[in-house]
Prior knowledge:
The protein is of the alpha/beta class. It has helices spanning 22-29, 46-66, 81-86, 91-112, 139-154, 169-181, 204-215, 229-232, 258-263, 272-285, 300-310, and strands at residues 16-17, 69-73, 119-125, 160-166, 186-190, 221-225, 246-251, 291-294.
Amino acid sequence: xxxxxxxxxxxxxxxxxxxxxxxxxxxxxxxxxxxxxxSFVLLATEAGRSHLTAYYEKYLAVAQGRGVGFVLxxxxxxxxxxxxxxxxxxxxxLKAANQASIALLxxxxxxxxxxxxxxxxxxxxxxxxxxYKEGLMGRDEAEDYHSVQIAAFAESEADxxxxxxxxxxxxxxxxxxxxxxxxxxxAISFTVETDGRLVSGRSLREAVEIVDDETGGAPLYYMxxxxxxxxxxxxxxxxxxxxxxxxxxRANASTRSHAELDESATLDDGDPIDLGRRYKAxxxxxxxxxxLGGCCGTDHRHVAAVCEACVPTLALxx
Length: 318
């Protein structure tokens, strides 16, 4: 049974950490091959599961040292039908992989969770297509498509699902509706270009407000990921009500655009200390931003720097 599905602790306040750029860390730091940027393939072997366990534990140690909560996102950003088919996974194999990702996180929670560090298990969902492109699905097609993965999570110990790197408002609506249909708490995370807008040209505010209007406020909260803070700071204006719906940030290490990152053969891991300062400023201006992690190019050093900047003592956890 899911432990927190009907009472998620991050909704009660306090800072929660999450991990960083899983795929970029495993490829560039660990030297692993991830076809189609898919980390879920590692779940198929004992060696792969050991790599994932070691990866998560670096972040859990940071959270434990500061007495803050942690959101454990599964290694399933690519574990949806189209990407899985490219990797030779059938329907049953894909369901097993999604559920194996949650089982791995459940074991980690058993070992690491403490009263001061609740660990929420989140089934990670990625876009059907390229995360840097808008995609062409309507909301109904998106609901049907993503229901496959969400249904697998609903039968597991996952407490919630979180959809990352979304550039399409319609896909976000479909995912939100699918999660609601399966009685799964859901977070929606959009990515933006260097101008602070979705690839479609829509503003972040429009994206949040449209999804809320069209789904009856189905997502528990929203996040921003896969963009550097300098890309989306311009889209934020303190005091605007819609920003209270954004609870998390998982920024890139690099200030490069998505197009530049796509073309780069090397890892730009930026400046962890500077990233920590930027998160601190975001927290000061927008106190609802309390789920803090990283995306492309970040690793446990970046999340540690963010934690150091935003949680200076064990006593400060809100």
